[in-house]
Amino acid sequence: MTTFEEAYELTGYGKYNILALFTNGFILLYATVECLSLGYVLNTADCDLKITIGQRGAISAATFIGVVVPAMFWGYVGDKYGRRTTMLPATVLAVIFSIGSSLSTNFLSMFLLRMITGTMVSASCATAYVYLGELNPPSRSAAAIAWGSAFIAGAYFVMPLFAWMLLPLKFSFGSGGLRIVPWRVLMWASTIWGILACVGMALLPESPAYVLGTKGGPEALAVLAKFYSWNQKKPPAEYPITEIVSPPIHSPKLKESLARIKYMIKPPLLRCVLISHICNFMVFMQSNAFYVWLPHIVDELLKHGPSRPGASLCRIMNDIHSAVNKNKLCVDVRGGPPVFPALRGFIPLVMDECIPVSMEKAMYPIAIVVGAITANIYAGIGFGMRRGWAKAKMYCMIMGTCALFIVAAALVPNYIAGIILFVPGVCGIASNTVLAAAVIDVIPTCLRALSMCTLFMIGRLGAAVGSHTLAWGLEHNCVVIVLLITVLTTVTGSLLFLWPDTQKTREEMKAQNFNY
Q: For residues 177 and 105, is the Cβ–Cβ distance under 8 A?
């Protein structure tokens, strides 16, 4: 009797796999855009929403809170009810609430709607890796995840591009407290990717691996026959496999699913879980945290670098933030008195006339370059995985190189050189694809969604820790914080060389009645 893996390989590769790639790619792109878009939106929305600096920070955090808090719940739902069944309605709701948040006129409505949007996005931003991996034969799963993850780089490209196109515009129409202005249109444009993802999921079936484990071989075989038909352009009846090995059908209830979590925190999975979660925490702590601060850092370097020849990135940022602390009551309004030079570019703390502060126009193309470099790193990872390159070596090479760029950018005594070095240094987020592929290889089907959700929950906690740590460093001691983050990331990356043998781990889990 044919195994599920052998039957899957016979479906071939074709338009079904391409549709699966683009659908899950759009899911990941949309989830990333929703988390990053406010970095551009709030630069011009503060006057319309009448928000303070503290409220702006709360709104920025709302989406991330929504993504992190329910992560384990969505992992259970994805393992219990199916990947597509969970992600499709959640993504539809994410689009609806995101559009609703774009119509907000005050802090409270924006904060609540962004948190709900993040909660819906949380259902798909990690499960998409599982769904994409299971929509491809085992031999192509890791490469498919890497290529799908390349769409994340698209978020780093399309967001600054759309912002560059829309935010400088001056149109405004409507009545009352709600006026249609560029930042609202930018938020609408950001939902395009979620809509495209929903269309793709409507065309795709449930994961055959999930169907095999919860409904049995005949139902899974029907899904594989459909894939074969799409790829080979033949009727499903011509699929050469008529029967596959069917494992015990199991659809656990909540209590049983929670009990199964214990298998993730004991051998043989314990080492895999610890290594992957520690490394992903550090990936997000370094790459995501530095990227969040990229617009601010580059903008300030462009404004103040020319007046500080011979000063490094860290020296300039420390000087600027120290000046801000000493001049907290300065107000920047058109036609008003001169303000302290270091404060230009910051949102006014107190003002009678609200005038949005614009960023240097050079910031947008620089951010687009970050997206282009990140996309190439993702493509390189996909190329390497397809050819069987060692995951540990790829991860260490990417994160180590990015760490060197960041350290050099922080220390070089020239602001232009600092920007040039800093840009590739923040592109290491692509290495989390390596971790995702490694985890999916060893985690059983019934625990994959949960494991991926916890993996990225820990990652986003790392982003939060990194962002706040870097904020302290920019104010007090930039060099020490940069060295601390980059050294920790590089050292923890070496843990991947302790990763256990994947095939042996799978066999041990199969012996405990787990399916793959």
A: yes
Q: What is the pLDDT of residue 171?
A: 85
Beta bridge partners of 244: 2
How do the residues of the chain divide into helix, strand and coil, expressed in percent and rounded to 5?
75, 0, 25
What residue ranges define each of the domains in the chain, with the CATH number in brackets? 1-250 (1.20.1250.20), 267-327+363-516 (1.20.1250.20)
Decide if pLDDT at 347 tops 50. Answer: no
Q: Are strands 178-180 and 173-175 parallel, antiparallel or unpaired?
A: antiparallel
Q: Please say whether the beta carbons of 375 and 153 come within 8 A.
A: yes
Can you state the angle between helices 217-232 and 208-215, rounded to 10 degrees? 160
Tell me which residue has tokens 């500080």.
308
Question: What distance in Å separates the CA atoms of residue 152 and residue 25, rounded to the nearest whole number?
Answer: 7
Q: What single DSSP character describes residue 179?
A: E
Is the pLDDT assigned to residue 322 strictly greater than 80?
A: no
CB-count exposure of residue 511 (10 Å: 0-12, 13-18, 19+): exposed
Q: Provide the token pair at 435.
A: 């971790």
The CA distance from 210 to 252, in Å, is: 13
- The CA distance from 304 to 445, in Å, is 53
The DSSP H or E segment spanning 438 is helix 432-442
Residue 409: how many CA atoms within 13 Å on its side-chain side?
A: 24
The CA distance from 157 to 245, in Å, is 45
Helices 38-49 and 182-190 sit at what angle, rounded to 10 degrees? Answer: 140
Distance CA 194, CA 77 (A): 20
Mean pLDDT computed over 242-260 = 73
Amino acid (one-letter) located at 121: V
242: Cβ–Cβ under 8 A, 6 or more apart, which residues?
Answer: 221
Helix (DSSP H) and strand (DSSP E) numbers for the chain:
24, 2
Based on its alpha-carbon atoms, the radius of gyration of the chain, rounded to whole angstroms, reads 24
Residue 379 to residues 375, 383, 433: CA-CA distances in angstroms? 6, 6, 11
* Interval 379-399 mean pLDDT: 88
Return the pLDDT at 300: 85
Compute the distance between CA of residue 177 and CA of residue 104 in angstroms, rounded to an integer: 9
Q: Which helix (H) or strand (E) holds 175?
A: strand 173-175
Q: Which residue, 93, 56, 58, 60, is CA-closest to 74?
A: 93
Compute how many other C-beta atoms are within 10 angstroms of the C-beta atom of residue 8: 27
Question: So what's the pLDDT on residue 355?
Answer: 58
Predicted TM-score of the model (pTM): 0.78
Q: In this structure, what token pair is assigned to residue 509?
A: 């889990």
| Residue position matching structure tokens 């259970």 | 76
Q: Which two tokens stand for residue 280?
A: 């992903």
Q: Which residues contact 327 (CB under 8 A, 6 or more apart)?
A: 339, 340, 342, 343
